[in-house]
Amino acid sequence: MILGFGYGFLGSVLYHGYLSPSDQVSNLWKNHPQELTMAITSIATVLSVTTATLFTISMKEALRHRISRPISLVQLSAGVALTKGTTILRPEYFRLTTLTLFVFGVLRLLTAGWTTLLTPVYFSLPINMQGYELDITGTAFSSMLFNEYKNQGYADIRDDAFEVLDIGGMLSGISAAGQTYGLPGTFNFNGVKYNISTQGIVPTINEYSGSHATPGPNGTRLGFSGGNVTVNTRPVPGNRTSLPLPQGFSRNYSMLQQGLTATINCQAIGSSDTQYTLNTNNSEVVYANAAAALNNSLAGLRLWNIVGNCGANTPITQNYVTMVDASGNANPSSGFLPSIVCPGPMNLSQIATNFTILSQGFDKYSFLGPSVCEVTPLLTTVRADYSNDLISSEIISSTPFQSENVQLLSFVAGVAKFQSISSQGLVSSTIGDTLFSIYSSTTTTTIGDNLGNQTVYKELEEYWRGVVEFSATFLRSGFMVVNSFPNNTIPVELQSPVNGTMYISTIGWTQRSATYLPAVIPSTILTILTFACALYSILRNRGYRTTFDPSNTLHLIMASAAGSLTLEDFSKDGIINNEDVKVWLDESEKDDETNKKFVKVD
Q1: Which run of H or of E encompasses 265?
Q2: pLDDT for residue 156
Q3: Which of 146, 223, 239, 503 is least enclosed, having the fewest CB within 10 Å?
Q4: How many helices (H) and strands (E) does the chain have?
Q5: What are residue 564's phi and psi, to 5 degrees?
Q6: Model pTM score
């Protein structure tokens, strides 16, 4: 029965894959480890003592029947040792010595085996997860996005009026730029924390979905300003278990899902370069106040008409306004960093799969000369790890944009344009301040030297990568927020599968432990020996009954004395000769008394 309990317990663990108590009991075990150890050890001790006792009784009965036939004294000695759980150490009798040592070892391992089997361990329970999210890569989404442009009143995403993004893009760029120097960064958006940057994903796990707010009628899709993002990911039930999933101490997730990033290459525009040009010479003072110093008011404003060549002599103009003094000169502590976003490739014969950003810094941002950044967005599959309230992503594979992604490219380029405009204020630029402050706080070199320029370009690349990735997260969030689709169900043609694993940290027993099977070996061996002894007793019984206890030293002395057993002395040879002497237990009835004596076999 005890062995059946052990194998039944082990079989349940192997069949279900794990056994875990209720969450209340799990927390109790976790908070009281010493009490748990004492309880498990006590139970293991009771089971091992019971098993050993049953073996001793069975062995004793077998030995009672065995001594009714001739048996050598050394064999009798070994039998007595087995009933007491001790050993004989006689090299001359290797088999008997080995047998007693073996049983002795098995008896000593009983408690360790039961303790190992019954002691719960902390483990991570893997559970498959499946679901779906918004697919932004296909023609179905491209058509829907184009219709949204029209519904919002935008003839094209490049319109200056397209201001659907807030400070999120800028913060994402700042967080990503800090990665250039290994700075730790956490980017927060819609109540969700991302490690460094979003990698273009949206949460697919309920516990990490962020805000639980319900957006208003105009707060979905391109009008998104925060709200509860719909999650459609669920655990996949196991094939052989109906056990409820434990809540566990913590839950971590590793999911494969869609993402979006960009490969960005920033470099200086050479003086002889005709492909990339940025004309910053057209500006005028549109407001001047000579008395500004007397009443501490605004001294002057300069209007800039920045013109960039976006290929095939296609100019794009962007206007900026900066603060100047009454004479039209900029304050030395101010800075101006204009940017022109060319929404497609410089070579107009190419498919629109990338876009270009032209930039140049002035005054305190003069460390950044005329520069060009070629931005190539990539559709990715990422492994998103959800742990400790933080989402960290790793790119598994990537593919460039295709012709069906032209609307998506237009949106991403529009977000970059919006950030390039909104980042420049009257006296400073968020992009310029980010480049300068991160570089200055992490290095000892001057930002304007050659090495500095190379590093600044790397910073600029990471900044724009953060903006691009945020644009995809913003877009997914807007279309996956509640009330974006009827019944909050994404249409089948817009679904992208999500797969992964949930890891539940809990306490209990799991089939992945390699010690469980060895733990039941001592009990198995001892149970087999117990049944073997019992079977021997049954077969040799044939009505034989005796009260003689061969494990009782007094009984052995009395039987030896009653039989006038004569043995040799305690010399080495005498002991060896005595061990080979064969005796048997003779029982006789006389005057209602039972006489028991060892009779020497000639």
Answers
A1: strand 250-268
A2: 47
A3: 239
A4: 15, 20
A5: 50, 45
A6: 0.78
